[in-house]
C-alpha cells in the first residue's frame, strides 16, 4: 500500500479501492464510502481565510479541523458529566480555563472501544508575578482534589504535582531529580510528602514546591450508574501565567499544541484563542517528534505495546500526509479484537476502584468485571477465549478480596497481574501482525527502531 499524497494525489477512488483490497487480504472490513469521505476531507486545502479551528455550533464543541473529523458527539453528555469532576476552576478575573477531551476519547468516531477518559485543560492564571501565579495554582489544584475526594460515582486516585528538587527515596523507591512527584490522597490532604536524602528524612511541602509546577495531572476512577461502567478519568493541566501587561507565559516552560483535542464548551473559545496564539511556530514538528519518541518506546522489546504504538502512529500519519496509512489504522481501531484494549485499560481501573476505602460500590466493580468477560466472549473464540475468561473470573474474586483488604488482597495481586499480561499479549499479537503486514507501515516502524 503506497500513499499517493507524497507525489501528487491520484484519483481518490483508486486509492480507496487499493486500500480495501489490501485490508481484505488481512481480514479487515473497511467501509469504502466512509474512507473516501475521510480522505477527501483530510486532503482538502485550507483556504487563506479559513481557520484551523472548527466550531460545531449544534453540539457546542470545537477543535482543530483534523481532530474534529474523528470526534462523535455520541457520548458527549457523559464526558461533560465527568468534566464537572475533573475540571479545575478558580475565581473570575483570576483563573480562566478551557477543558478538552484528548487521546482516544477525542477520537470516538473511530475508536469505538476507548480505554480511559483523558481530559486536557488550559488554565490561565492572572497574577502580578509568576510566583503568585504558581501559588494560586497550588491552592486551586489542592482545593479541587480535596473538594472531589470521593462521591457515589467517583474516587480520587492521585495527583501529579511539581518535580523532585533532588535525588531521593520515597517509600523505598528511588526518585530522580526533575521527575514528577506523585501524591496519594492522604499526602494531598497532609500537604506534604516524606522522603529520604542520603538516608536522612526530608519533607516536601505542597506549597513550597509550587515554583516548579512541572507536569500537572489529576486522576480519578469514575462510575456511570446508568451504564454500570467504570472509567479512569484524568485531567492534564497546561497552566499559563498572564502578567499585568498581558504577556502569557507557560509555567512549565512549554505551551502545548492543540492537534488532538476537542473542547467541550464553545463559550471557552476566547480563553483558548488568547492562549494558543502563543504556541510556537514549530509546535507541529515538536508534536510529531514527541509522538515518534513514544512510538519508538512502545516498539522497544522492554516496553512493547503495539496497540499504543498504533494509536500514536495514526496521529503522526494523519498530520504528515500519510493519509492512506492513517485510513488503514482507522479501521484497525474498530476491529472486534481491539475491544481487548478496553479490557486491558479497565483492569487497572477496576484495581483502583477496588482499593480499600474506595467510595465505588463493590456491585459496580462486579458488574464491570462481568462485562469484561462478555467483551472477551464477543472478541475471541477457542483456547484464547477460555484462558482469558478463566483469568477474568479469577480477577473478579481477587478484586473482591482487594476491596475487603487483609492477607487475601495480597494473594489476589498475582491473579490481577496475570490477567493484565494475558490481555496485553493478545493485543500485541493482533496489532503487531496487522502493522507489519503493510509494507509502508513496517518500513516506518523499522526506520524508527534503527534511527
Oligomer class: single chain
How many alpha or pi helices? Answer: 15
| Rg from alpha-carbon coordinates | 23 Å
The helix/strand order is: HHEEHHEEHEEEEEHEEEEEEHHHHHHHHH
Structural class: alpha+beta
> What's the end-to-end separation, in Å?
23 Å
Overall residue-averaged pLDDT value: 86
Observed structural traits:
single chain, alpha+beta, 3 domains, eleven-stranded mixed β-sheet, two-stranded antiparallel sheet, 15 helices, 47% helix
Write the layout of secondary structure elements.
Elements: H1 12-25, H2 32-43, E1 53-56, E2 61-64, H3 65-68, H4 76-86, E3 95-101, E4 117-126, H5 130-147, E5 150-151, E6 154-163, E7 168-170, E8 173-175, E9 180-184, H6 185-190, E10 192-197, E11 200-205, E12 216-224, E13 229-242, E14 248-250, E15 262-263, H7 269-276, H8 283-299, H9 306-319, H10 323-332, H11 339-353, H12 362-379, H13 382-404, H14 407-436, H15 439-450
Parallel strand pairs: 4-13
Antiparallel strand pairs: 1-2, 2-15, 3-4, 3-15, 5-6, 6-9, 6-12, 7-8, 10-11, 12-13, 13-14
Amino acid at each position: 500500500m503506497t500513499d499517493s499524497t507524497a507525489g501528487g494525489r491520484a484519483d481518490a477512488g483508486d486509492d480507496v479501492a487499493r486500500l480495501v483490497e489490501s485490508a481484505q487480504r488481512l481480514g479487515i472490513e473497511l467501509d469504502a464510502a466512509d474512507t473516501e469521505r475521510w480522505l477527501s476531507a483530510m486532503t482538502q486545502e485550507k483556504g487563506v481565510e479559513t481557520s484551523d479551528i472548527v466550531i460545531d455550533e449544534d453540539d457546542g464543541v470545537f477543535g482543530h479541523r483534523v481532530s474534529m473529523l474523528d470526534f462523535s458527539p455520541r457520548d458527549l453528555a457523559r464526558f461533560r458529566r465527568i468534566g464537572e469532576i475533573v475540571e479545575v476552576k478558580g475565581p473570575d478575573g483570576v483563573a480562566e480555563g478551557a477543558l478538552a477531551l484528548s487521546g482516544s476519547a477525542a477520537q470516538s468516531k473511530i475508536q469505538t472501544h476507548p480505554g480511559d477518559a483523558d481530559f486536557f485543560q488550559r488554565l490561565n492564571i492572572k497574577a502580578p508575578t509568576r510566583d503568585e501565579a504558581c501559588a494560586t495554582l497550588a491552592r486551586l489544584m489542592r482545593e479541587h482534589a480535596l473538594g472531589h475526594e470521593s462521591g457515589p460515582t467517583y474516587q480520587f486516585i492521585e495527583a501529579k504535582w511539581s518535580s523532585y528538587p533532588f535525588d531521593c527515596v520515597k517509600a523505598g523507591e528511588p526518585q530522580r531529580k526533575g521527575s514528577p512527584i506523585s501524591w496519594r490522597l492522604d499526602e494531598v490532604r497532609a500537604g506534604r510528602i516524606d522522603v529520604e536524602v542520603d538516608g536522612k528524612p526530608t519533607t516536601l511541602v505542597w506549597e513550597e514546591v509550587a515554583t516548579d509546577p512541572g507536569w500537572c495531572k489529576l486522576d480519578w476512577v469514575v462510575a456511570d450508574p446508568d451504564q454500570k461502567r467504570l472509567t479512569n478519568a484524568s485531567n492534564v493541566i497546561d497552566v499559563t501565567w498572564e502578567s499585568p501587561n498581558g504577556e502569557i507565559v507557560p509555567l512549565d516552560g512549554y505551551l502545548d499544541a492543540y492537534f488532538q483535542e476537542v473542547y467541550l464548551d464553545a463559550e471557552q473559545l476566547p480563553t483558548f484563542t488568547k492562549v494558543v496564539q502563543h504556541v510556537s511556530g514549530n509546535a507541529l514538528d515538536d508534536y510529531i517528534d514527541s509522538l515518534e519518541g513514544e512510538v519508538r518506546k512502545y516498539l522497544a522489546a522492554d516496553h512493547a505495546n503495539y496497540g499504543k504504538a498504533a494509536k500514536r502512529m495514526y496521529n503522526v500519519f494523519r498530520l504528515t500526509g500519510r493519509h492512506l496509512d492513517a485510513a488503514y489504522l482507522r479501521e484497525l481501531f474498530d476491529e472486534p479484537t481491539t475491544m481487548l484494549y478496553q479490557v486491558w485499560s479497565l483492569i487497572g481501573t477496576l484495581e483502583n476502584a477496588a482499593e480499600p476505602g474506595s467510595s465505588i460500590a463493590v456491585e459496580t466493580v462486579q458488574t464491570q468485571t462481568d462485562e469484561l468477560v462478555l467483551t472477551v466472549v464477543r472478541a475471541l473464540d477457542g483456547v484464547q477465549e477460555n484462558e482469558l475468561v478463566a483469568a477474568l473470573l479469577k480477577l473478579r474474586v481477587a478484586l473482591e478480596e482487594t476491596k475487603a483488604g487483609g492477607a487475601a488482597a495480597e494473594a489476589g495481586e498475582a491473579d490481577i497481574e496475570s490477567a493484565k499480561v494475558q490481555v496485553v499479549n493478545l493485543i500485541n499479537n493482533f496489532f503487531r501482525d496487522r502493522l507489519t503486514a503493510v509494507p509502508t507501515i513496517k518500513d516506518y516502524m523499522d526506520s524508527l527502531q534503527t534511527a
